[in-house]
Amino acid sequence: MTAVKKEIWATLAGISAFLGGLLHVIALIGGADWIYFFHAPPSVVESARLGTWLASVSTLFITALMWLCSLYAFSAAGYLRRLPLLRTGLLVVAFICIVRGLIFFPLILINSAWLKRLDTFEIVASVIWLAIGIFFALGLRAVWKKSC
Length: 148
Description:
mainly alpha
């Protein structure tokens, strides 16, 4: 029996998406101040302050999506059985993450007022989103090579 080689980029994508989901859960547990720190929309921060359902439901929904992305990445890496629409799923996630990571550059070129709104958190978050998108894209590339 031969060992299956695990795909490193897809593994990094899976770990990153899982940790992103976990960070959302931790922020929810941390309460309104944590949710505010992570730049949630004002309505979600207010919901956390008031204890209404919006903060919990939206945060858990985002967590579920991130963990689903993680499952697809771990499937691509060879840790799980091949999930349906694996290449399509990886392509969509890679595209969304890369666009999210790069979104501020065209906005700054179009309207320099955006530059004043950027803070360290936004810059770091964009770099992280871009890195995760690249991980997913490289994981997709490996899956595509295996299936050809």
